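Please check what follows.
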Amino acid sequence: MIGETIGILNSWIKDFGMLSEGWRAAILIFVLVFGTAVVAFIASRVIGVLEQKFSSTRNLWDDASIARRP
């Protein structure tokens, strides 16, 4: 899936015809890093919401499943 996405992005950028190989690689790296940052941000928000919801219950198992490790 990631390989196909990179191939699609590379061909899309290549179709512009104005960018060299180095610029295409830099753009692809930027897109991958930005995508990773977006996924990490969303995951941290979801985990934060789950921690708040789980802390208000009396169930031990939900607290243990989302507990942060020191």
